[in-house]
Amino acid sequence: MPRFSQTFLDSVKAANPISDVIGERIALTKNGKNFKACCPFHQEKTPSFYVTPGREIFKCFGCGKGGNVFNFLMEYEGLSFQEAVVKLAERANMPLEGGGSLSEEDRTYMSSRQQRQKRLYQINQAALNFFQRQLALESGKEGAEYLRQRQVSPEAVRAYRLGFAPDSWDDLAVELRSQGFKDEEMIAAGVALPSQEGGGCYNRFRKRVMFPIWDHASNLVAFGGRSIDGSEPKYLNTTETEIYTKSKVLFSLNFAKNAIPQMKKTALLCEGYLDVVMLAQNNFVNAVASCGTSLTQEQAHLIRRFADVCLLAYDGDAAGQKACMRAIPLLTEAGLLVYVVPLKENEDPDSFLKKYGKEAFQELVDKKLSAFTFAMRHFSQEHDMAEIQGRYALCRKMFPYLMTASSEGMRQELIKELSAFANVPVSSINIDLAEYKRAQSGKKERGKRDAEKEENPEIVPKEEEQNGATAAERHLIALLLSFEECMDYVFANLELEAIRNPLPAKLAYNLRDARKEGSWRGVDNYLNSCDELSREFITDVLTLVPLPKDPGRSARSLDASGKAVPFWKNACDDCIRTIKAEHYQEVMSSLDEQMKMTKDPEVLRQLLEKHKIYSQKKREVNRIRTFNSMANESTQEKENDDEQ
Ligand SMILES: [Zn+2]
Asked: What is the pLDDT of residue 455?
């Protein structure tokens, strides 16, 4: 696979302005600094699709899609990343790396994609045979023993073709070489890793029970390896390859798709490979699992291709319940009717089946909660339902769910359920919901309007939450992505735990890790490799969040000790303080709740103590905020004086 250097990718991008490349394919209209058009990725009559030349990104506020010039071409023409790069290099008459124009070899490479893919499937098949064989051998004793202990039946082991990767650095590589596969091919297939010194390669999977992963068309695309001795990571998958994109494959869908039509078109979605195997062993053959990641939009659509109904059987613990809350909107938007199987805390399908058997699991399935009921109960844990404010807050959280009702009659049924649960009159819910609807329909328009507005760094949108992130979180991510030099400052001054919403939190952690490892290559590269939801979020903040402009060296302000203040510092400080204040407030609310619940005077004293500390912290943050804005004003005055 030709790997392109960073410099090459940068120059390809520089030679292909995004507005030109997109403009050659769809009609763009100039709109201030941006261009707009009707989105090529979804049906629409009025334009929500924006191209921002300065930042070299596109963004649709209708369907959410966004990205850089490579992402656009991949999506629009169905190309791989490499193909998109080659296409754009050719467009700009740039010779591919290695000299000359597109060499014969590269041309063959690009056209023999199928040939290459066939080779990867063959390697996977050979590896599968190898892993399966081990279970009967001395080298695979531990694996066989592990499967016995987990009560996986011999029939299930055969049906799922489970296997074992022995505790060895090179047995698989030796075997594959003997069958005529090259080391590069094993590395490209993701079953081996390149050796650091002296070339060659070594096994990616060691001492793991192996779960082969087929795509829905029954192509063997990857493996999931589960550690048997508690070593980390618990699950290790094949690296992403030309034939395997983690976010687009569901484990066992190749089996489940045949069973789903006979099971009232219902799919059973769970978290782990072993859950699926145990469910199938107990006749729930419609079970599938996402491959070691939280559910993606693509996976939701994949389920929809085969099923009308999706039952979520995630772990009963807090993490599992949160994962349910993330999966529900994705599945609903894909057009599935969603239910949750109410597993108790500490239970997953695997453990439940072992303890209580399949009849009990069927009973549990029969007691399934609608997504609406599940969300209602989930949110009610976050609010004080004894207080009128808490009960109304719960209702507000349910509005998005009410909006997805298939008909007005259905909506009124749900409102009745909510009314009874939250003890709020139906009429009040209807009034507030009407208000919410009005605000929502204005929002899409506002998104478009904001994109059309000239950038104005003075205006930082306040508290409003969009895409499940607060304004400060969105602003901070935009700053981090736009000004690499502010990263160290932000990471030194903000505990990332304080970021409440999952998407900005995940991005912040990724950025921090990349910065630490020295692997950060700018937002544009990140867009080439990140998942779709992150890409949508990033393009959203980069299109909408106004950023301070670098005024250049001459105009930097000075702090009290005469040191230059970077132009991004005030904006960063502002975000950090707001995020901290929001975080402290949340901790305090949770402490309040706990204080109400407890009767133990000693516990109460400790909680009060904690509450005091956080309230002090919050005051501190607010005090600095006020102080700083005063200081900034005076600095600015000083600068003005200097000019005169
Ligand atoms: Zn669109």
From this structure: 43
B/e letters for 350-360, b = 16+ CB within 10 Å, e = fewer, are bbbbeeeeeee
User: What's the gap in Å between 331 CA and the centre of ligand 1?
Assistant: 19
Q: Identify the band that residue 114 occupies on the pLDDT scale cut at 50, 70 and 90.
A: low
Chain-centre distance for alpha carbon 23? 30
Task: Quote the ligand 1 centre to 43 CA distance (angstroms).
Answer: 7
Q: What is the CATH number of domain 6-111?
A: 3.90.580.10
Q: Distance from the CA of 335 to the center of ligand 1, in angstroms?
A: 18
Residues with CB under 5 A from ligand 1 (ion): 39, 41-42, 60, 62-63
Q: Quick check: helix, strand or coil at residue 222?
A: strand
Confidence of residue 92 (pLDDT cuts 50, 70, 90): confident
pLDDT at 637 over 50: no
Would you kindly state where each structural domain of the chain is located, as residue ranges? 6-111, 114-242, 250-376, 382-448, 471-636
Q: What is the pTM of this model?
A: 0.56
Ligand 1 center–CA 136 separation, angstroms: 53
- Expressed in angstroms and rounded, the spacing between residue 19 Cα and the centre of ligand 1 is 17
CA 300 to centroid of ligand 1, rounded, Å = 18
Cα of 49 to ligand 1 centre, how many Å?
A: 6
What's the Cα-to-Cα distance from 548 to each of 452, 454, 488, 562, 638, rounded to whole Å?
Answer: 18, 13, 18, 21, 20
Please give the distance, rounded to the nearest whole angstrom, from the Cα atom of residue 510 to the centre of ligand 1. 27
pLDDT digits (tens, 9 = 90+) for 266-289: 999 999 999 999 999 999 999 999
Instruction: Dump pLDDT digits (tens) for 130-189.
Output: 999 999 999 999 999 999 999 999 999 999 999 999 999 999 999 999 999 999 999 999
Q: Which CATH architecture has domain 114-242?
A: Alpha-Beta Complex (3.90)
Tokens describing residue 592:
């309040």
CATH no. of 250-376: 3.40.1360.10
* Helix spans in 453-554 (H): 471-482, 487-493, 502-517, 522-529, 532-544
Distance 23 CA to ligand 1 centre (A): 16
Please give the Cα distance from 58 to 50 (Å, whole number). 6
How many whole angstroms from 410 Cα to the centroid of ligand 1?
28
